[in-house]
Predict the 3D structure of the following.
Amino acid sequence: MLETTSIAAPSQHPHYAIVEDRWHPAVERVPAKTYNMNFLKFEAGKCERVNAALEELHIVVQERRALPS
């Protein structure tokens, strides 16, 4: 039940996903809006960019954590 509530309710907390860049913008908008999802994209079939994306994510998270509440 808790999982269902979590999925059904919008989130104000930021979430991140590493995805290939072949998602249609309309499909991307739903989780972006509902779950406050930020997408770190890499070119389809070229996952070598993933490590750099994780490093970028780390920096973004640290910067957000440093902001006053």
Observations:
- The two ends are 30 Å apart (CA to CA).
